[in-house]
Automatic annotation (TrEMBL):
This is ABC transporter ATP-binding protein. The keyword Nucleotide-binding applies. Keywords: ATP-binding, Cell membrane, Membrane, Nucleotide-binding, Transport. PROSITE patterns: ABC_TRANSPORTER_1, ABC_TRANSPORTER_2.
Length: 336
């Protein structure tokens, strides 16, 4: 059967004053119904841009998109704005990092939560408000019948994020895109929001794309992980595969810079040296080669000269041998 969401050879480019930004450079992935895909990468890796393209929220004036985005059999690339508008907030919805930029200070929380429901189902404002109360209850806002008439500034940060989730789920979307939804929250609230999202996913059956720079955040959340670097996917696998047997030197760096992987292995804390690649003038060959500590293990100048491909299935886009991909990181971990 065809996957629920299929992205094939996606290229996204913007024109800027400084030149053409190659934000996404040949990206392919699939997402099954009801599953969670974590897209992990540093800022500028193309992860947010990819998802804005799925939602059709890019600026058509300055953005060039090539490739295929097919949602439940429907082609989204090049679809008329009217089609996308009918899907956004309805069949596909988004939770943003900062609810304050997504919620208007001038309208009550309840009115904003109800808005997509009223728009897509045509119910009355009264019915919309009742549905908003129901959704506030589901996301764990106490006294929802009173709080529905509050303004966003009367909510705490965690409650605003819950309200955003209520708004995103009100039309029962089959695809939910969450872009760093807990980054602005403290650790305790973050954990609560992740639990909530997981529970609601069970209830609503939505597929989720969870975008994050922090592998730890999605360790308990995602089924599969796609690691992005410099606008490209560089590794893909199940959560377990990525966390326990990562194959790409960049993923090794991400894991090593995570505070604590699990209780039985002790990975030293190493931030990855260097900076993310320029998307105006991307490096030749492997985009990670200026930062990679393993180029001398690859024959010739292949790392700087030849772009490694990312084959389908469990794989890493790297010229190291299959043996090296499997052994180097594992051997570097000292068992406790
Ligand atoms: Fe490092 Fe070369 Fe692999 Fe790129 S292809 S990650 S530079 S070893
Ligand atoms: Mg981003």
């Amino acid at each position: 059967a065809d996957p629920f969401l299929s992205v094939r050879d996606l290229y996204v480019r913007f024109s800027t004053e400084d030149g053409i930004v190659k934000a996404v450079d040949g990206l392919s992935f699939d997402l099954e119904r009801g599953k969670t895909l974590g897209i992990v990468g540093e800022s500028g890796s193309g992860k947010s841009v990819t998802n804005l393209s799925v939602l059709g929220l890019h600026n058509p004036q300055s953005t060039e998109i090539r490739g295929e985005i097919v949602l439940d059999g429907q082609e989204l690339t090049g679809a008329p704005e009217k089609t996308l508008e009918g899907l956004r907030g309805n069949k596909m919805a988004m939770i943003f990092q900062d609810p304050l930029t997504a919620l208007s200070p001038y309208y009550t929380v309840g009115r904003q939560i109800a808005e997509p429901f009223i728009k897509h189902t045509g119910v009355s404002r009264r019915e919309g408000r009742l549905r908003a109360i129901e959704m506030l209850t589901k996301v764990g806002i106490p006294q929802p019948k009173l709080r529905v008439d509050d303004y966003p500034h009367q909510f705490s940060g965690g409650m605003r994020q819950r309200a955003m989730i209520a708004m995103a789920l009100i039309c029962n979307p089959s695809l939910l895109i969450a872009d760093e939804p807990t980054t602005a929250l403290d650790v305790t609230v973050q954990a609560q929001i992740l639990d909530l999202l997981k529970d609601l996913q069970q209830e609503f059956g939505s597929a989720i794309i969870f975008i994050t720079h922090d592998l730890g955040v999605i360790a308990n959340m995602a089924d599969d992980i796609l690691v992005m670097y410099g606008g490209r996917a560089i590794e893909r696998g199940s959560v377990k595969e990525i966390l326990t047997t990562p194959q790409h030197p960049y993923t090794w760096g991400l894991l090593s810079s995570m505070p604590r992987l699990s209780s039985d292995i002790d990975v030293p804390l190493h931030p990855i040296p260097g900076t993310p690649p320029s998307l105006l003038n991307p490096p030749s060959g492997c985009p990670f080669h200026p930062r990679c500590a393993f180029t001398d293990k690859v024959d010739g100048n292949r790392c700087s000269g030849e772009r490694p491909a990312l084959p389908a299935g469990r794989s890493a886009a790297c010229h190291l041998t299959a043996e090296q991909k499997q052994s180097i990181f594992i051997e570097s971990i000292q068992p406790r």
